[in-house]
Amino acid sequence: MSLWAQFMLQDGNSPIMQNMIFFHDYAMMIVMMIIILLFYVIINIIKNKYIDRMMISGHFIEIIWTIIPMIFLLFLAFPSLHLLYLSDETKDPIFSIKVIGHQWYWSYEYGDFSNKVLESYIVKNMVDKDLFRLLDVDNYLIVPMNCQIRFLVSSMDVIHSFTIPSLGVKVDAVPGRINQINMFIQRPGI
Q: Are strands 148-155 and 160-164 parallel, antiparallel or unpaired?
């Protein structure tokens, strides 16, 4: 759930988002290790009194500063690729929802059960201060939890970006093209 003045990511509401948060923490740990290592090397170079001005080439040190960054990049690349493939994996959805982006609103069609169309506008008048800016709308899309849902995303006019941050979902809505994204919602929320 989002909180006011929150500096971290929203709580993951799907297995993919929880894996993304874990990968974010993992990548930040590696970045902090690199920063600490660099500060240590810089401080040691500054404090070092032994300088060899006649050293022209150092093949060993060049191999070291080529291999160590490659190792760090591999520690980031493999989990990132695994997460990328997991997020694009398609499973058998229970039902599909068609999402159409318009210039100032989104329309949702529950095609499997009825021909119900829901139009959702961002709340313009922020009189109620308990609303989340750019996350609250006048009509909420209601979807079931603990089942696979497929969203078919398209647009009527220009390119839009359909995103649900707590589910780790972001897909472009392009006119004349239908993109699909699968979701698994674990608990209720916005």
A: unpaired
Full set of structural domains in the chain with CATH:
15-87 (1.10.287.90), 95-184 (2.60.40.420)
CB 153 within 8 A of CB 171: yes
Alpha-carbon gap, residue 137 to 158, rounded angstroms: 21
Paired with 116 in beta bridges are 110
pTM metric for this prediction: 0.77
CA distance 12 to 182: 15
User: Could you tell me if 131 and 171 are in contact, meaning their C-beta atoms sit under 8 angstroms apart?
Assistant: no
Chain-centroid distance of CA 33 in Å reads 23
* Separation between Cα atoms, residue 89 and residue 103, nearest integer Å: 30
pLDDT tens across 87-101, in order?
A: 888 788 888 889 999
N residues, the chain: 190
Residues 6+ apart with CB under 8 A from 31: none
Range among 51-55, 74-78, 123-127, 184-188 with highest mean pLDDT value: 74-78
